[in-house]
Amino acid sequence: MLVILVLCLFVGCKGDAKDGNAAPKGAVATSTGFSGSAAYGYAKTQVDFGPRVPGSPAAKLAGDWIIKQMRARADTVIVQSFTYTTADGKKLPLRNILARFRPELPERILYVTHWDSRPVSESASTAAEKKLPVPGANDGASGVGMFVALGDVLKKTRPNVGVDLLFTDGEDYGEFGPPEVDVLIGAKYFANHLPSPGYRPLYGVLWDMIGDKDLRIPYEMNSFQQAPEVVSRVWQTAADLGHGDVFVQESGGLITDDHIPLLNAGLRVIDVIDLLYPPHHTPQDTMDKISAKSLGIVGDVATALVTRR
Q1: Collapsing DSSP states into helix, strand and coil, what is residue 290?
Q2: Rounded to the nearest 5°, which phi and psi values hold at 234?
Q3: Would you give per-residue pLDDT tens digits along the chain (309 residues)?
Q4: What is the pLDDT of residue 31?
Q5: How many C-beta atoms surround the C-beta of residue 158 within 10 A?
Q6: Which of 56, 153, 183, 207 is the most exposed, having the fewest neighbouring CB atoms within 10 Å of its CB?
């Protein structure tokens, strides 16, 4: 995912089963029951498919795998399949995947992550590498791994609110500009095709690039300005769990990400993201750059938000 950092107030800006059906043996759970090692294993399964560039065989396999995993965990799974025409006329087959827990409850929380990966590595150091697709271990697979591991918890421990896990497609395909061209595609589609006409979750959280070994998550300032109460809830939950050294009370600047179309649609969705990640949009965004510990911290917070009052 590519972003535009416009404002930095306090910190500098810069850019075991193969099928994954069960958590790995020996997976260590956090206090909420979330397993970072399971999340890491699920993320690896995604990366092992290859770059999940829309329209590629790897994307077909990875999307099918996500649907299978969530059908085994969630109460309901909705697949939004659609064709998107790019600015240069290419037809892209895309799928948003919405896994719903306790769909009967009117009070809901929306979690979002993107599952595609970028077709080019424009931030790479050589001309040859710039043409390569991004493996997307952190930028794509980390969120997917966290969501599937969260599904493990929610299948056993029913959440106290309805929970919707949205996997968006086509987030990272084109150019973030300005102007934006062929990006945030799945989030824009979802914003115009909500699960029901009156769909208004209590709040939402976008979880993106959450596996960095050197994890440090500041406020995203679009989120802070437009949904400050949601930022406060998430960061306070992290502090209560002992993760205040990771969810830091500093500005990370303004970021263009999947939460923007949702905010524009009136949904109070914030972005949880660690952008200070050197392999971003390079062929080096591989599994050795992320950690089960980081995924466990973020998963702990995500789980607590929907299972504790």
Answers
A1: strand
A2: -70, -45
A3: 444 343 333 333 323 333 444 455 555 567 899 999 999 999 999 999 999 999 999 999 999 999 999 999 999 999 999 999 999 999 999 999 999 999 999 999 999 999 999 999 999 999 999 999 999 999 999 999 999 999 999 999 999 999 999 999 999 999 998 999 999 999 999 999 999 999 999 999 999 999 999 999 999 999 999 999 999 999 999 999 999 999 999 999 999 999 999 999 999 999 999 999 999 999 999 999 999 999 999 999 999 999 986
A4: 81
A5: 12
A6: 56
Q: What are phi and psi of 140, to 5 degrees?
A: 135, -65
Task: Write the CB contacts of 62 (distance below 8 Å, at least 6 apart in sequence).
Answer: 46, 49, 52, 115
In the numeric block, which tokens belong to residue 296? 């466990």
Altogether, the residues listed in the chain come to a count of 309
In this structure, are residues 70 and 77 in contact, taking their beta carbons and an 8 Å threshold?
yes
**C-alpha count within 13 angstroms, C-beta hemisphere, residue 289:** 22
DSSP for 129-197 reads HHTSPP--IIIIIHHHHHHHHHHHHHHHS--SSEEEEEEESSTTSSB-SSSPBS-SHHHHHHHHS-SST
Secondary structure class of 272 (helix, strand, coil): strand
Q: Which amino acid, 309?
A: R
Q: Answer yes or no: are the C-beta atoms of 113 and 132 closer than 8 Å.
A: no
Q: How far apart are CA 1 and CA 119, in angstroms?
A: 11
| Residue located via tokens 């392999």 | 279
How far, in Å, CA of 220 to CA of 242, rounded? 21
CA 306 – CA 309 distance, rounded (Å): 8
Q: How many whole angstroms separate alpha carbon 96 and alpha carbon 57?
A: 17
Quick check: helix, strand or coil at residue 231?
A: helix
By C-alpha distance, which of 300, 275, 292 is closest to 44?
292
Q: Which residue matches tokens 């896994």?
A: 99
